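In the previous chapter we treated chains in isolation. Here, by contrast, the input contains two separate entities that must be folded as one system, with a combined length of 739 residues.
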Amino acid sequence: MQIELAHYLLLAAVLFGIGAMGVLTRKNLIIVLMSVELMLNSVNLSFIALARHAADQEAQVIVFFVLCVAAAEVAVGLAILISVWRKRGTMNIDALSALKG
Amino acid sequence: MLELLYLIPLFPLLGVLLNTFVLRGQAEKVVGWTAALMIGASFAVAVGGFFQLLGMPADARHFELDLFRWIVVGNFAAQAGFLADPLSMIMMLIVTGVSFLIHIYSIGYMHGDEGFRKFFIYLNLFVFFMLLLVMGNNYLVMFVGWEGVGLCSYLLIGFWYTDELKASAGKKAFIMNRIGDFGFLLAIFLIWTTFGTINFREIEPMAQAYSVGTGVITAICLLLFTGATGKSAQLPLYTWLPDAMAGPTPVSALIHAATMVTAGVYMIARSNFLFSLSPVAMEVVAWVGGLTALFAATIGLVQTDIKKVLAYSTVSQLGFMFLACGVGAYTAAVFHLMTHAFFKGLLFLGSGSVIHGMSDEQDIRMMGGLKSKMPRTYWTFLIGTLAIAGIPGLAGFFSKDEILWKTFESHHYPLWAIGATAAFCTAFYMFRLLYLTFFGKFRGTKAQEHHLHESPSLMTVPLMILAVLSIVGGYVGVPHALGGHNFFHDWLSSVIHTTGEHGGTSHGVPTAEYVLMVVSVAVAVIGILLARSWYLGKSSTVESLGKSGMRNLLYNKYWVDQIYDGVFSKPFVKASELFAQYVDQGTVDGAVNGVGSTVSGFGGIVRRIQTGVTQNYAVMMGAGTVFLLGILIWSVLG
């Protein structure tokens, strides 16, 4: 069976969906953060697949940008998680509801 | 001397400054005599000016002293200046002369009062403003004096301000006067817009251009008269004057009998060239004056406070003066003003002497038999009483009789009847007062009887001088009918033109005048005899005039105070409360609070969106993105 563009895109969509569900439903902040990473990488995957399909290198450059941003995001995100843990002693996302109106 | 005219008001002002800043902590004698001598100096200058004026030809008797340009706004310009003419000269002499005597009297009367220095400062200040009032050469200077004497009146009525009643009597006087002043001020505005000047001597020739009965002149006159009813305590604004008796007695004598309250009469006499053009206003003045004369006299019949009797008597006598103005007899009005200043000043000072001797007792039911204990006070009081009652030979007879005669002569027969009735009441209540105070047995407490004494010479000498004036003061205006010569009339003839339909002294057959004279004397004598039969030596009938409803009505002053309270004060307070409750708290506060609660209510609904659950936000974001993408795709495909 030939692996085609549609398979890559389908995989990327599934991964994105899993990531999105993780962000929306999981209560543990670390898992939420990991889910965000998953969504980012699913997008990267679709970029790569499309770059190959279109024989265009530009999209691969964008993937590098995304990786850089994701790395920075993880660094900042984890730092925030640590200080939340120190402050609140919990990783439960529902406990962080200070903005409730 | 007339070039030094400005010194006349300057001396009292100097007295104020000296006593305020320089003579702090000085002995009573220094303070009191400084104040008195300042007035004495003014009096001396006034006398000098008087004789200089007397030496001039009759039609040139005026001297105007322009001091400085005072107010210039747009096309409005007012000079500050003084005018000395026969009318203002008479007023200057009365004001400074009577004030001088009362100042001396006050040194004795106010002895030992802790506000001694303050009293003389106020009194000097009053004389200063009163002189501004009578000396001003235009309505605005007059108005400044007018307001100034009102202020001093307020300060002196509430002189013993720790007493709530006295303080509120001061407020009452001030507020009642404000109502009148409002009319005066409007009159000045109207004079300015009509004539383009407010100077008396400039208006006078201009006024001649208007025909009799012109609407605007009538309006000016009625507004001026409104001012006069306030200051001179006429119906319907008279109620403050009896209450003003809360002040020290010299104040009652000076301000509320001799000088300030006559300012309204002076103002109308000064504006005679306007009033003569308005028969309607004249009728109003005459009727208000006549009715006030009778109304106040009837109240005076049953009052039991010695000063209240005199206060109602003052209101009544002022009514006579306005009656005279109203029938065009301005000269008679000013004449009565002068004699009244003498005998009413005397009576008030006499009552002060009695109160002083009676240890501050003012109720005549508690007096009696003071004749032997206070002989000087008694004899001078008797002269004053005879003068006010209109007994021939004394000042009051000539002036009051002239008023009644002029009223009759100008065909105001009902007003003459009212005036004669008021004169009867006057004779009655004054002799009632005299009999209850000086005759019979002493009815006060033992302590009062023990303390009873004649007042010191400082107080009795002014009484005697005023008593002499109350006798001789009338002889400057002896009517032609009695073979005399009315010097007073001649003196004022250059200021007061009796050319209107009301004026004109008839030199015809004076039979009617004789008859009226006899009638008014008879009326006075009947009043005296009635008082004698009811009150002399019968301590049981102190409460006389019966316990009838009539007496009750009079004793309670026709319930006018209560009526005013019910008609004006109470509804006003009630309306204020309603406004506070519904307009302020309801509407204004309601609008402000309504905006606030609307915003917060809306916020309360909208804030539910902010759940605080991070994942809800994420859902929203997702939904929003999908929505936007949907639109994008839709637009690309569509």
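The longest helix of chain A spans residues 58-88. The two ends of chain A are 55 Å apart (CA to CA). Compare these points with the single-chain example from earlier in the chapter.
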